[in-house]
């Protein structure tokens, strides 16, 4: 069973921003844990200039890797018991254990601070399910994606307007909503929906409420988060996942771990273990408790999402 969604914000790929500037404040307790983590942090020395980086060897010696997280369910967060969890941290625990690093340590921050924090060595790896895009690829290096993500809509039961993609929303003059900073804003605008007519709400919980109350006909979000949030609704349902159009071509987002550009050795070692987990099916087992399904498994590469 997936953990409760709470206020899980749309990851990872906000429309116009290269680093993803708009993110809500961290979940309750995360800031305090961040201070605690900083106080107890075993800082790994800075890069020694080795070709490809020697961070993995230094992490093995220290026995701990610091993970930058953004307090977002289900991607990386501190649960009600004060424990680090989420799809990215749980995957990191498995992969780094295989690489000889026994412990992971959370370093909570705002989403927009993840890349600057990584490059200023506040932590060793971004473990926040960050979407891979060319703008971010100019600042960090990514592992291959551990998941892919399609879009879907929250609509009223029976989908009375027959909305299955952004083109339908435009052609049927549906009242459209999505979340603050969501990539879906750009997808709808590309399809021809006037940006000024989009109702922006805080998250998919607010989106569900807007659909149920009849204030909008449709709320757009990721397939995973919309699927989870409608589970207990008697008035709304989720549509079949679909690929939005970007520059007129079907587009699939993918989330991955980010590393400093100097640390290609660590990124490559991480990728080798990730590939083994994909091949064995263990990756889905690790991600399934957070709402991920076979539909979110992917063979996309970072190179493809970075634009070649």
UniProtKB/TrEMBL annotation:
Organism whose genome encodes this protein: Streptomyces incanus
Lineage, highest ranks first: Bacteria, Bacillati, Actinomycetota, Actinomycetes, Kitasatosporales
Disordered: region residues: 1-22
Record keyword Ligase present: no
PANTHER family (UniProt xref): ARGININE-BINDING EXTRACELLULAR PROTEIN ARTP, MEMBRANE-BOUND LYTIC MUREIN TRANSGLYCOSYLASE F
Name this polypeptide is given: Ectoine/hydroxyectoine ABC transporter substrate-binding protein EhuB
Solute-binding protein family 3/N-terminal domain sequence ranges: 64-294
Pfam family, one: SBP_bac_3
InterPro entries named among the record's database cross-references: Ectoine_EhuB (IPR014337), Solute-binding_3/MltF_N (IPR001638), TAT_signal (IPR006311)
Alphabetical keyword list: Signal
Superkingdom assignment: Bacteria
